[in-house]
Amino acid sequence: MLECRSLATFYDAAQILFNVSFDLQKGRAACLLGRNGVGKTTCLKTIMGLTPPAAGSVTFCGRNITGFPAYRVAQQGIGYVPEERRIFPDLSVEDNLLIAEKDNPEGIKWNLAKSYEVFPPLYEFRNRQGGYLSGGQQQMLTIARTLMGQPSLLLIDEPTEGLSPIVVRTLEEAIIGLKQEGLTMLLAAQDMHFAHHVADEVHVMNRGSIVYSGTVDQAKAEADKVLAHLAV
Question: At a CB cut-off of 8 Å and minimum separation 6, what does 30 contact?
C-alpha cells in the first residue's frame, strides 16, 4: 500500500532524513521507533506532503504522490494525527468530529456512533468544548476526528506522549481494534513496549536513518540490538 524509497528531507540547509526506505502492506501496522529528534515526525510529514522530500519517492496504492501538497495526499486516502493534536478548542467534541466528516465508500465506515463506541469518553463529553478536555481525551478526539475523513492509511505521531498509563492502555486497545478492522497504520513512538503491543513491524530510526527493521516478534527476540540503537 505504501512504499517509501530513499527519502531525503531537509529543513532549510539541515538534512533530517537520509535514504529512508520501507514498505507497509495493507491491513498492517508499523511503528517508527526512536528517541526525540531522530526524524520520525519528519518522516510522517514527508509522506503527508507537509515537508516534501528533496530526493526519493512516496508511492501510495500504486500512485506516486511525491511532492503532492498535503490536501491532495489527504484526498488520496491518508489521514494524519499530529503530535500537537490541533483540535478546535472552542468547538464541542461533537462539532470537532462533524466538521471532519466525509463520505468515502472505500474507507472504513466511520461516524459519530463509531467514534463514541471506540472512545466512550467522547460520548460522555460530547457537548464539552475541546479546550476543556484532558490530554488523553484530546488525543482520542484527534484520532476519531481524523477517522471521520474515512482514510485507508492513518499516520499517528507520538500518540502516547505525556499520557498516563491508564490512558495509554485505552489508546492501545483502540489502535489494536482499528487494526483488526483492517485499517493500515504507521505510528511514530518512543516506547518500545507500546510498539510491541500495537504494531506488526518496527523500523528503528537514529540520526535520520532507519537502522533496524523487523517484525515485532523479531524485535522482541533481538531486544538487545533494538535497545542499543535506541540508546545511541
Answer: 22, 24, 185, 186, 187, 199, 200, 201, 202, 203
pLDDT range class, residue 83, cuts 50, 70, 90: confident
Residue 130 is predicted with a pLDDT of: 93
Burial (CB count <10 Å: 0-12, 13-18, 19+), residue 53: buried
Q: Which domains does the chain have, with CATH numbers?
A: 2-84+151-231 (3.40.50.300)
* CA-based radius of gyration for the chain: 17
Residue 201: strand pairing partners: 30, 215
What is the pTM (predicted TM-score) of this model? 0.92
- Judge contact between 213 and 30, C-beta under 8 A: no
Inter-residue contact 212 to 203 (CB < 8 Å)? yes
